[in-house]
Structures are given as C-alpha cells and as structure tokens.
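Suppose you are handed a protein chain with no further information: no name, no annotation, nothing but its sequence. What can you learn? This example shows the usual starting point.
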Amino acid sequence: MHFLLKRAIKERFGSLNKLQIRAFEEVSSGRSVLIVAPTGSGKTEAAVLPVFNAILEEGLKPISVLYIAPLKALNRDLLDRLIWWGEKLNLDVEVRHGDTSAYRKSKQVKKPPHMLIITPETLGVILTMKSLRKALSNVRFVIVDEIVELVDNKRGIQLSLALERLAEIADFQRIGLSATVGNEEEIKAWLKADIVVKPPIAKRYKVKVLFPQPDEKDFELSRELSIPLDVATRLRVLWKIIERYERGLIFTNTRQFAEILAHRLKAWGKPVEVHHGSLSKEARIQAERALKEGKVKALVCTSSMELGIDIGEVDVVVQYMSPRQVNRLVQRIGRSKHRVGEISEGYIITTNMEDYLESLIIAKRALEGKLEAVRPYENALDVLAHFIVGLLIEHKKLPREVPFEIAKRAYSYRNLSWDEYGAVLNMLNDARLVGYDEESGLLYLRRGAYQYYYENLSTIPDEISYRVFDVKTGKIVGRLDEKFVMDLEEGMEFIMHGRSWIILGIDEESRLLKVRESKSLESAVPSWEGEMIPVPFEVAIEVGKLKRDLLFDFVSAKRVISNVDFDEKELEFVRILLEKQKPLGTDRDIGIESIPKALVIHADFGNQVNESIGRFLMAFLTAKYGKVFAMKAQAHAIVLHTPFQLNPNEVKNYLLQDHRVLEFVIARELRGSTAYRWRMLNVAKRMGALRREAKIRKVERLFEGTVIEKETLNELFHDKLDIKQAETVLKALKEGKIRIKVNLGREPSPLATLNLTVGGEFLVSGELEKDEILILFKERLLNTEVALVCTNCGWRGTTRVSRLKNRVKDLQCPKCSSLMIAVAHPIDAELFISALKKFKRGEKLEKEEESAYRRLIKASDLVKAYGFDGILALASYGVGPDTAARLLSQYRGEALLVALLEAERRYIRTRRFWKE
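A reasonable first move is to predict its three-dimensional structure. Written in structure tokens, the prediction is:
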C-alpha cells in the first residue's frame, strides 16, 4: 500500500474494516468486484481505496477511473468524501453532469482528472467527444454506485451498453456497489464481475411492529389537533418511541405524507424537521444540520435519507405504515446504529389490519434475510436504437453486424435476436437516422442523427406538467405531472394540497385541468399515489397464509412471526376482525364481493400480479358492457367501480379462463389505455420516430405492428405487471388449488370498505363516476338545444331538451300530426329535409343525404321506443343513432348516463388523429 494512502487511512479511520480489507485484496489482484453491504458499512471506501492505491503505485494516467452514480446517489457527503481523499493523495477528483459549468467542463478536457465522477447519461456524452477520447482510453477502473437503482430500468440498460462502448477503447476493471439484495449473483452477472464481496458478519436488526389502539389520553389530543382519534393514537405512540432515544428518523412512503406528518407533529409542539427530494438543497442541509446538532429530535423523511448522508449517529428508525418491501425496510432500519456489530433498531407503526399483517411479514422476512430480487430490464429496443447511433457517431461507419455483437456482450441483451436488431435498424432507416450501404456492407449516419442522439441522452421521460384551474375562484391552484394526469378522467377526484378536487374537464391542448373543490377526501385519488412502492407477490402471498393461520391455528401463526417483536393483544384484535370478514382472501382463497356500484376481489398476490389479473378481467367486462368501469389494483385487492351491481359468478367465470391467453388479452386491453399511449409516445421519441416536441393524440394507430409497439408492451410488462406469476395464479384457480368464494350484498365488508376508501392514512382509491359529475352531465344535456324533425313531412323546429321532458308522450308534428319525430344535429336536420324532398320527387339521393335520411328515421324510432331516455341519448355529443340504440338496449337510469358520458369521451378522444 502506498505511504500517502496509509497516512490518509490512519487520519480518517485509524484502520480499515474487514469488508474494506477484503475488497482491497480482490481489486488489487485485478478482479472485477461486486461489493454488497448495508448502509454505513464503508462500501464507498472499499471501492475507491484500492483504485487510488493503483493510481499512486503504478502512476496511472488520467482519466484512470470513472465513478458512475445515479443522480440520487450523487449527494454532497459522497462528493465531499471523494474530494477529501483526492486532496490527501494529491490526485485530481472532478465531477461532471448536466449542471457542471462550461468553464469546468473545458478545464476537464484540457487537464483530465484522475477520477471523474459522472452520471450514466454523462457517459453517453463523453464517449462521443473527440477531445476526451484519448483520456478515456486510459480508464482502468469503472465504479458503479447504487447499482440496484439502475439494473431494473432503462437508465441501467443504457449504462450497460455505454460500458460496452467504453470497452472498445479501454481495458478496465468493474467495481459495483450495492445495498443488500435478493439476487446478488444475477447483479454480479449484469455487472460482469468476477466475485461478490460481503461483510464477514451479517447485519443484525431488531424490529417491533405496532397496531396502536386508542386510550383515554388520545381523545384530548384528537380534539387539540383536530385530527381523527386513531391518528392521534398513532402520533402519541410514535412520539413515545422517539422520546426514548437521542436521535431518530421517521420514514414515510411519500413526500406529501412526510409533509403532513411533520406538520401534525409541529402543531403538537414537537421538535422535528421534514426531509425529502422535492425540498431545496438549502432546506435539506438545514434539516440535516438541525438533527446532527441536536436542535430537533427527529427528521420525518422519505427514501432521500436511505442513502449515506452524514447526519451523525441515529439511535432509532420508525417506519410510518408498511414499508411495502423487505429491501426498503432493511435500507431504512439500517440507518440506525449502523456501525459494524451494532444491532439496528426499528419500529413500524401500522394503520389498519392489512397494513399490520403486511408489516409483520416484511419484518419477518427482513430478519430471515429474504430480500427481494431486482428484476433486470431486458432487450430495450429504444435504448438499442440510441446505442447504434452513438456507436456510429464514434466510428462514422461500421459493418452491420458490429453493433449487434457489441450489444450481445451486455447481460441485458444476451437474448437479443438478429430479427429484433434488424427491425430496429429498419426503424432507424425509416426515421432517416442511419443508412446501410449494401455494396460495402457498412452502416452510416444520416442527417438528424446528432440531434436525435443528444436529445435522447436520458431515458427518463420529460415530465410535462398540467396546470390545475379552479373554475370557482378562477385561479391556478397547482400543477400535476403528466404521468399522473394520464390516469385521470372527467368525473374522477384527486387530492392536492390536502384538499379534494373533482375534474370537470381536461384540456390537453392547453395542458389544463378544470376542477372545482369537492368535500369528499375519502373518494379521491392522491396525486402522489404513483410514488407508492409495489408490494411483491412473495410478501402478499405470505400475508394471505398468515390470515389463514390466524383463523385456524393461532399458536402456529404466532410461531411463524416469532422472530418479530409484536404485542399479542394487537394480534388477537386482528384475529377477531378477520373472523368477521366474509369473503376473505388468503394464500388459498380469492373472495369476490359484489355490492351496488363496486366489486372487490380479495386477492393476496401483490400489486403487479393483481394489476395483471385486473386488466385481464377488464378486457372481458369492457367487451361486454363497454368502457364503464374503473379498475384499481392494490396489494391485497382488485377494486372495480361499476355503474351497476355485477354478478360475482360472472367475474368468477372470467377468472377460470385458460391462463395461456392472459398475455394476449392484457396486451389487447392495454392498447386502449392512457398509460400505453403515454409510454408509446416516449418510446417513439427514444427511437427517433418522433421529434421530442411532437404532440400526437392517436399515437397507437401510427405505430401499430412496429418495434415501437413491441417495446411499449415490453416496458409496461416489466414496470407494471407480473404476467408469469399471474399465469401461475390463474392456473391454480382453474385446477382448484386456489378456491373462489363469491358474495352478493348491499353493504361492503370491513376489508372491502378499507380498499374502497381510505387505506391507512392517505392511500385512497377513487371512483370513476361520481354522482356530482353525473348531475353536471345531465344538467348539460337538459340545456342542450336540439333540432326536432318530422320524418313524415319534413317540419323542423328547435328546443331545449329540458322542455321535452314532460311533453315526450304527446310529442307530435304541429304540421301533419305525425308521431315520428326525430332529435337531430342541425346539419343532419338540413340534409334530411333536402333528402326527403328529393325522395318524394323520386330523385336519386347523394351519399351524405342517404346517410342522414337513415339516421333520422332510426332516431325517430328511438324517441318513439325509449321516450325521454332516447332524447337524452341523441342529445349527447358525438353519440349517433347507432351508438344510442346499442346503449339504450343495455342501460336505464343512472347506468345510461354513465354509458353516455363514456361514449362522449370516446368520441372526443378519437375524433381527430393529429393534434393541430
């Protein structure tokens, strides 16, 4: 070891720990290494110290090492530490990312540093720079920080290809840093490492799961803070824990809830600060300093505090509501007493029965070391397109097979077929980005390739926001991300700034949501729900088993979770609640519960499996009834909001369909969704088929049957669904290994109530059609002016729909007394009158006239047969006599209004292909 490094180690640590010594040995021997260890175990130094030693001992030329980290991991503490080592060792350490000044970047080109700290996207930029190419050929080490943050998404897949591009010009060792993870061998293969290095002693944890019940003190706190009694109880228990320790962290699952919880604690006079990624850098530094200096007892935070930010010693971690994943719990609890050999202490405060059972299972699995596997993203065809163009920018011309061979070296593309590669090349050729010379067999760049490449350096979609406009006050009340808006429709409610809003209209052209305040917090979708972490299948199915054990063998149930600290009285309380629940989902049962306006499937399969099964059901229901349902998949239930009460046996029959059709049916069902359109738009831009600023409404029609469609489905299947596990569930249902229980009732069961309204504190799900929006819709129909036409003599008049309500039975022509009166659009009325005159004279009708004639004859039949319902249907925007006839034959009353509203929306969505 070089004497400068020995001296710096003594100053910083005294000596290296066992993990750092082992990593030093492996890296120094020339191996590529994956270092897997919990927060606070000295991973960063384990990676960089042997690298710094090699630079000093061998006199390596700059740039000797690239340190690659997701932006999230590039926190101040990391940078300060690396720069400290650089200063002590007389080595240049520089940072380069999007916010680095032009002056600094220019300096790095003229005098490259020994270590360059970059983001994955920056590597894509510097690989194309002639001025840095010589320095990059010197790279001997590449360190990838927070590797699990990258493996399962397109940022990571882009990085894996960029590393293969770098390998074309440099020979380097790979060093990966990862928190503990369930599939470390696969992560090792992804990185192309030779060995996994871990601490010799496994980290130890102590976890207590609480389901607090109110006592007398809580009534006073509830009144004092104007909060519900159960919330007051949880605050009391939470603060009682914090007071027993010197310094604590309180984790929540979302940023907005961190704000709400911190606000409640401050209102109670407790010394806390809030810390999350949306706060300014100054606010975060201030909060960290306040905790470190003892000015506050705790920080209320989100995943922003999972990383190694220096906040001094933390004695305890409290997780508010289920952490939803084992990896997440281990990361968070690992922040307390994180020195080697210390036992990290954590508490989970839960808010309802399912939250409690889920937390018990997650704590149990954490203590058993059963962490979730991170699923690597595979064969991203849009990222492959960008890679091909990047290679050609570097090399100008290449044989056709070379990009294919280089891509296949990356773990994520090991299964890439020549046909898929060819389809991507064809798309790039059609987009005029890459050409192929058949004579020479070479690929070459075309005009526009450079602009496309630099516009698409990031695989993270541009987040466009919509302004939220309150029609009552005439003011903008906030903004929502496009990703969230894509799942909203007129009539839905959402929560923003702690208030509930009902959507009256979505103006996509102006990116404006017209809303007015609604008083119903319970029926609204929180605007941050997209942030919620999905609960894995393995956790959810074990929750189902615990439910079954609690009911049939309480002693066995206690034994299952014996490694977790819990209160037996609270477990007994949940057992009593479960006894009242019918139907109940377990690991061996699905319960289908149908009530007026909703159907709840109690299914313990986790978010992604339930999303898959829910989409499968929606395909069958939509085919039969039209788009009148809203589906929400949760970890332990699938919730359908319905305009009428569904027969649960009908839904049961759909669940017993052949599991082999699942992927095909879901792919077809997804094609009509807003999520599909949004993702396709981004995939098309990343493949160069659309410019970044393009605004196309019916994008799915444009790219049907192309590689863009294939990649869009690939993305959705990877990020949102678990087709494989859902197929296993459907197969088990068909074979009778999982039973289906059905229940038709008037009132929801306790767990149905929980999943339909508020799950825990703010996890809420919204109805598609609200009574309020239906009233507004009906009012609008009643005020619509329509043309009345006598299909016998051609008399024509106009009136408001509301005036016909009490006259419909006596409606007749004032001229010839005919009862065949049609309600029509003014243009149709004119065409009909012209057609009728020609018809009576025996003249041939124009095509448009003939069509209008048929429409009005049918419209008069509908008014005669269905009365005022027929008039409402014909007055709806974009609903012609054919659609009206179909809906009138299926629906009555409120269900008809719901169907008409959906038909209007469908017409508005499909009337134009291109945005003007």
